[in-house]
Amino acid sequence: MPASPRSSSRRRSVLILGSEAVPFAKTGGLADVLGALPSALARLGWDVTLAVPRYRGVDAGEPAGVETLRVGGFTCNVSFRVAPIGNGARALLVGCPELFDREGLYGIGNHDYPDNARRFAVLTRAALEFARAGRPGGPAPSRLDVVHAHDWQAGLAPVYLKTLYSGDPILGRSASVFTIHNLAYQGLFEPDWLPRLDLPWSLFAIDRMEFWGRISLLKGGINDAGAITTVSPRYAQEIQTPELGSGFDGILRARRGDLVGILNGIDVREWDPARDRALPAPYDIDHLEAKRASKAAVLARFGLPAEGSAAERPLIGMITRMVDQKGLDLVAALGAELPRLDAAFVVLGTGEARYQQFWRSLAEAHPDRIGAFIGFDEALAHLIEAGADMFLMPSRFEPCGLNQMYSLRYGTVPIVRAVGGLADTVVESGRWRNGFVFHDHTPAALLAALQRAVAQFADRRRWRALQRAGMVRDHSWDRSAREYVRIYERVMRGRAR
Ligand code: ADP
User: Is the dihedral of CA 372, 373, 375, 376 positive or negative?
Assistant: First the structure.
């Protein structure tokens, strides 16, 4: 007879907070993580609630109550909706039209909404209040084990747990974890926001939330969480250095004992060459020849020659935001060197005008070697991942990076700069060799790596070994979720003490 719920040990619970999650809203990698982690944790037996804003156009879920919330003199009527998101995990969509029914997620163009501090404080407070009140139809929870906050938008969650809710019978016992996805976004606001967020002026101190005369919600999260994680082990090290610490290196060094890097997973169902419907023919590790059909399709799509020697040349793909972070400056500095390599390039991306123009001009000047598509196209991204022989990511910094993991899974050998998650996933030497890696942020180092890759491509046997080494690796969310659970257990033990 199966054990009754009463006799089994209590299910542990986590409230995950963040500003965007697939399938509700996405502007970047954070949405992918929050779209996948909750159900992976639920699969491990956790009771998981993911709280995100209900932005314009989101009408998923069932109504789950309303609440009048007051945050620093601002009153709003919050409506909750709950939607299933896999394996029993639920999304809590926090509605407040005045704050979230807007054109953009964070602002318009380069202009952030001036009340972003309030918007995300309301998200945080509403989610915490929902969690302590219990779910409609269910018993009031006796505890919420972990609050897991992501990026500056959720940075107030650990702060509120330590201040407003420190004596609360439920939330006062919750442990917290804060995850940094990109340290470049710090949630900076004028200090007079403190009372408007229901926070005391004592937090305007160097060892709390003050950051160069303002308050930083990111800093609040880092200082007050029981543990801090970031999205790759290497990035966890890098952000403790002045070069990549964005001014937060000292704060992070002070908490290094509580700082852990956990590599993101990828959606292994969405990104699977054996079932990817964007490809003309499926393939897997034992049928790599079928990858050629995708290469032919990419060449045709970009109008590149596919006959005779042209078909034998390696095809190098790039799918990227065209910004300095992604190393576009290095690529642009190589300029006319690129078509001189015995290779062809296809590029998909949008971003800064100068880089878009660079690729457009290069493609016009070398239509037999360079193909560029300026735009955002999910299906084409899949096709390029499959059809390219190599994938280029020369990033200046890269907290985790997804495309190199898609590439490895698709037998498309990555060429990367040794930073952040790229350094943790791609290696050029040793038994697990699966790609090409350069270190210096210089055009010469990038060119040398490209040349090494192109030369190696001629040796088909060794090339196959590189492809296979990438394809056998486990990039699933299950592995990452297990590591998060270890951190949850650690902060829970710390809290119990
Ligand atoms: P970041 O989040 O810093 O932009 P990542 O490598 O972590 O970088 O994730 C980028 C994601 O966005 C990948 O899934 C990538 O395929 C996708 N992407 C970026 N630009 C485009 C584009 N122009 N068209 C389609 N997908 C794109």
Answer: negative
Residues 300 and 235 in one domain: no
Q: For 379-423, what is each residue's pLDDT tens digit?
A: 999 999 999 999 999 999 999 999 999 999 999 999 999 999 999
Model confidence over 19-74: pLDDT tens digits?
Answer: 999 999 998 889 999 999 999 999 999 999 999 999 999 999 999 999 999 999 99
pLDDT at 402: 93
> 92 lies in which domain range?
13-265+478-496
CA of 320 to the centre of ligand 1 (A): 5
CA 99 to ligand 1 center in whole angstroms: 27
| Interstrand relation of 188-189 and 214-216 (parallel, antiparallel or unpaired) | antiparallel
266 lines ligand 1 (CB under 6 A): no
Name the residue of 403, 404, 406, 408 whose CB sits within 8 Å of the most ligand 1 atoms, as the mutation to test its pocket.
Answer: 403
Residue from 261, 251, 279, 220 nearest 410 by CA: 279
- Average per-residue pLDDT for the chain: 94
Matching residue, tokens 């985790």: 400
Q: How far is the CA of 13 from the centre of ligand 1 (A)?
A: 31
Number of domains in the chain: 2
319 lines ligand 1 (CB under 6 A): yes
Tell me if the bond preceding 158 is cis, omega within 30° of 0. Answer: no
Same domain assignment for residues 236 and 107:
yes
- Determine the Cα–Cα distance for residues 433 and 466; give it in Å rounded to an integer: 6
| Any ligand 1 atom below 6 A from CB of 349 | yes
The per-residue pLDDT for range 99-156, each reduced to its tens digit, is 999 999 999 988 999 999 999 999 999 999 999 987 654 555 678 999 999 999 999 9
Ligand 1 atom with least separation from CA of 29: 2
Contact indicator for 328, 424 with CB cutoff of 8 Å: no
For atom 20 of ligand 1, the residue with the nearest CA is 320
Q: Does 278 map to a domain?
A: no
Please name which of 152, 151, 157 lies closest in space to residue 175, comparing C-alpha atoms. 157
Is 280 a member of any domain?
no
